[in-house]
Structure formats: structure tokens, C-alpha cells
């Protein structure tokens, strides 16, 4: 029977539909994906933490498909798969609202200094002598502020809808130039100069790597807050840390990083006004289950010789 490698333990009841098509080889949590594991595999179900590159594919001659439990596919060499005629499945659409919720949560937490306030209480600093003053934990107003959204795909549009509930003026930039009702479209540099808050929602590609560069961070509105729930490589983290040092940027809310886990010596960690999350944009029970269901549906279709319902490189189908 066909063998399919699954790189992390996933809910058995969600993997069950594949049982009639293949033998599943589910790796342990601490087990790494290696070429030897794929030597006889027909399929691979992977996560965004798995690097699927040419070197790995060269050692997997029988591989017919890859199905990733993710929307983004920057961890996969898509060109190498396409050259080999191997379809790549992904899971679009299901994490839009979940990720938009987190982006707005980080925006609010950074604006109102919730990370600092939480630590202040937990560390026992909230004492009778430090009970309240007129300047106690002053933050930034969100209501009626200006939000700049970098990337107006489904998640960016969902963030714009949430911003409308806070009476925010919403500016937008997207590589495609699309127009979204209720969003004022601007060139990226103009958006950065005008926005009190900037939220990043573009995919990581060769064109968007380091899109929010040192020069663009320096050109942001003084006192702005930056939120990134897209991919870490889009933002120059060293430049962001310097801008926080210089108090040009007021605060940041980050869920993604150029290197994950975030390095222990990252200069961002010294900043009390950075609110951190460990790449949990899709981390709700319902959303993660739906992502696995889509990945399984992609794999089942490939095993049956059918077209994947959600294929990231449809050119393989001609």
C-alpha cells in the first residue's frame, strides 16, 4: 500500500479518511523530517515548520504530492515541486478571521501597554504607593486613529472590518493595487507616513522580503505602532529594534519572526513595549481542525488520482 509521511502527530480522527488509501507514517513530536523517511513515500503531509527543499525532494523519487497544513508555502520550494509535476496542497481561507482577531488583539495590547501592565501586577509592583497617578500606564487611543494595512487580501480585509468598529480611518496598500470599499488606497510610503498603526498582511515572497525595511521604518509616522502577523522576513527586525530604542516607534505587536523560535539574543526582547506571541495566528481549536481537514482532503484527492481542491501550484495540472 502507498506510504504517506505525516511530520507531526495530528488528531487521529482527522487523519482517518486517509486510511483506506495509504499507510500513514506519523512522526513523533521530536522527530525530524529526513530524506531517508521519504525514500519510499508517495506523499507528505507537513507543517510550516518543515523545510521542503530541492535536496529533500532529490531523495524522494516516489513522491507524488505534498500537502501542507498551512496557508503560506514559503517553507516549500514550490518551483522545485512544479518542475517535478508534484502538486502542493495548502489550506487557504480557514484562518482569516482567527488571524485577524489576533492582529487586532496585538494592536490593542500594544496600544494600551497590556504586556507591561500584566507584568507590573504579576511582579508585585502594584502597591499602595504605586496605586494610581495621572500618568499611570498611559497608552495610545485606538478609536478614531489611522490604521495602515499592508496587504489587502482576505486577512487584511478582515482587519479593516474590525477597524471600522473602532471608527478608525483605514488606509491600505497591496501589491495587486486592488481597491477595497471603505479603505483609502495609497502608495506604501505614504501609508507608512500617515498611519498611527501599521498592520502587515502580505505573503512572504522574493518581492516582499524586507518590504518594511530600515528606510521605511524610519519613514513611519513618529510614535506609530507596528503589528506583524504575516511572516517575520517581511520586517527588518534589527531596524525595528533601533526605532524602538530611539522611541521613533512607540510599540510593536509581533506573532512572527525572521527566525523562529525568536533568538534569545534578539534586541527586540529588551523592549517592554513589544507584545510577543509565538506564531499563534491560527491557534484556535476550530481553525486548526479545519486546516487539518483541508490538508487531508488535498492528500486524499492526490492519492485517488484527482485534482487537489486547494493546490498552491495548479500549473502541474496543465
What are the SSEs and their pairings?
Layout (H helix, E strand, L loop, with lengths): L1 E5 L5 H4 L6 E5 L8 H4 L4 E4 L7 H5 L6 E4 L9 H6 L4 E2 L6 H16 L2 H9 L23 E5 L3 H11 L4 E5 L10 E2 L2 H7 L2 E4 L13 H5 L5 E5 L8 H9 L3 E6 L19 E3 L8 H19 L15
Parallel strand pairs: 1-2, 1-3, 3-4, 4-5, 6-7, 6-9, 7-8, 9-10, 10-11, 11-12
Helix pairs in contact: 5-7
Distance between the termini: 28 Å
Tally of strands:
12
Mean pLDDT: 96
CATH level-4 homologous superfamily of the largest domain: NAD(P)-binding Rossmann-like Domain
Strand order of the largest sheet: 8-7-6-9-10-11-12
User: Helix fraction?
Assistant: 25-40%
Low-confidence stretches: none
What value does the Rg take, in angstroms?
22 Å
User: What's the story with the biggest beta sheet?
Assistant: 7 strands, parallel
N to C succession of SSEs: EHEHEHEHEHHEHEEHEHEHEEH
The CATH topology of the largest domain is Rossmann fold
How many helices does DSSP assign? 11
Overall tally of structural domains: 2
Shape: elongated
Q: What's the architecture of the largest domain, going by CATH?
A: 3-Layer(aba) Sandwich
